[in-house]
């Protein structure tokens, strides 16, 4: 039995994680953690998530007696970093899905992984992790004069853009091509008054309504176009993947792992 603690437990992903823990038989909820200032502190977890049957209450993430076999964080970069400090000080493995990290924030995460095992993934679905392999095949097998573009669509409340997944797809393509991603990434063409070059990766973003998460990598040339698309229909997909990662991580040595390690896709 793996005891799981969920940070940001009142958030969209926090709620999906609680549901995923409830569904999976080999795990149990050790804690549903919210900020000290949260209106949900000390209220029943099920008041927010009606399908949840646990009698647990939301508890304070800064509490001294916070305990779990594995902690899961899908919050914001600032919150994730403070949760990471807690995990390192208590020597608890951590699964992290928070996106929008700066290079400096990523460096903190890498440093922490010298002390505890961490799974960090910008997408916990099986499909997207397979897609990361498929785009590398397309990038290496297709002719060099392909235009490469990545499109992503998410719900109106998503803060970071492009999505972590879009960037992971772009980085996978750049790696396969032997390109430096930061050099070839093109986020905005509004001031570029010239034709598309074939050694760049263009990104475009849509934010609307309740879209859970859609990503397409385009490989296009004269006369044909290959589109590799993934569509997530429910946040439970990501949450179940994170719970699976937590079970996999429980007895691993310190280090930085990703969802492809968990799924054996490397
Ligand atoms: N890797 C993956 O597969 C996926 C990753 N994500 C990522 O997960 C993250 C969360 O997404 P989502 O659930 O939609 O967002 P929500 O806004 O619904 O939830 C964010 C949660 O983080 C908490 N939080 C924010 N700032 C802090 C802080 N400084 N300290 C402590 N807690 C904080 C919020 O608490 P409060 O309510 O008190 O503000 C809330 O509980 C995003 O980065 C998103 O991109 C999402 C889906 C899949
Ligand atoms: O914020 C979201 O919702 C999602 N975020 C992740 C990302 O940035 O790629 C994963 C998923 O697409 C949903």
Structure characteristics:
9 helices, Rossmann fold, seven-stranded parallel sheet, 2 domains, 266 residues, binds NADPH dihydro-nicotinamide-adenine-dinucleotide phosphate, alpha/beta, Dihydrodipicolinate Reductase, domain 2, 35% helix, binds the ligand O=C(O)C1=N[C@H](C(=O)O)C[C@H](O)C1, five-stranded mixed sheet
Folded structure, characterized:
This protein has 266 residues and is an alpha/beta fold. It has 2 domains: 2-120 and 235-263, NAD(P)-binding Rossmann-like Domain (Rossmann fold), CATH 3.40.50; 126-232, 2-Layer Sandwich (Dihydrodipicolinate Reductase, domain 2). It has helices at residues 12-23, 45-48, 77-90, 103-112, 126-141, 164-177, 181-184, 235-249, 259-263, and strands at residues 2-6, 27-34, 58-60, 70-73, 94-96, 117-120, 147-154, 185-186, 201-207, 213-221, 224-232, 255-257. The strands form 2 sheets. A 7-stranded parallel β-sheet has the order 3-2-1-4-5-6-12, sandwiched between helices. A 5-stranded mixed β-sheet has the order 8-9-7-10-11. The protein is elongated, with a radius of gyration of 19 Å. The mean pLDDT is 95. The protein binds NADPH dihydro-nicotinamide-adenine-dinucleotide phosphate (NDP) and ligand LZUJQKHR. NADPH dihydro-nicotinamide-adenine-dinucleotide phosphate is lined by residues 8, 10-14, 35, 38, 74-76, 78-79, 82, 97-100, 121-124, 160, 164, 238.
């Amino acid at each position: 039995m793996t005891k799981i603690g969920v940070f940001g437990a009142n958030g969209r992903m926090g709620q999906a994680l609680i549901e995923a823990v409830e569904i999976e038989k080999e795990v149990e909820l050790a804690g549903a953690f919210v900020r000290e200032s949260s209106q949900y502190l000390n209220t029943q977890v099920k008041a927010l998530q009606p399908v949840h049957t646990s009698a647990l209450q939301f508890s304070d993430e800064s509490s001294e007696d916070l305990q779990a076999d594995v902690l899961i964080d899908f919050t914001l970069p600032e919150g994730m970093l403070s949760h990471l400090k807690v995990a390192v000080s208590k020597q608890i493995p951590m699964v992290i899905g928070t996106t929008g990290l700066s290079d400096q924030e990523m460096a903190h995460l890498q440093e922490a992984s010298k002390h505890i095992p961490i799974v960090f993934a910008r997408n916990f679905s099986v499909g997207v992790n397979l897609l990361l392999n498929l785009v590398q095949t397309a990038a290496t097998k297709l002719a060099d004069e392909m235009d490469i573009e990545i499109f992503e669509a998410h719900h109106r409340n998503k803060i970071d853009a492009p999505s972590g997944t879009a960037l992971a797809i772009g980085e996978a393509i750049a790696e396969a091509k032997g390109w430096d991603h930061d050099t070839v990434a093109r986020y905005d063409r509004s001031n570029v008054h010239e034709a598309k070059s074939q050694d760049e990766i263009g990104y475009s973003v849509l934010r609307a309504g309740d879209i859970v998460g859609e990503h397409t990598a385009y490989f296009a040339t004269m006369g044909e176009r290959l589109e590799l698309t993934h569509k997530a229909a429910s946040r439970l997909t990501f949450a179940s993947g994170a719970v699976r990662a937590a079970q996999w991580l429980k007895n691993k040595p310190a280090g930085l792992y990703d969802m492809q390690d968990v799924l054996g896709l490397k």
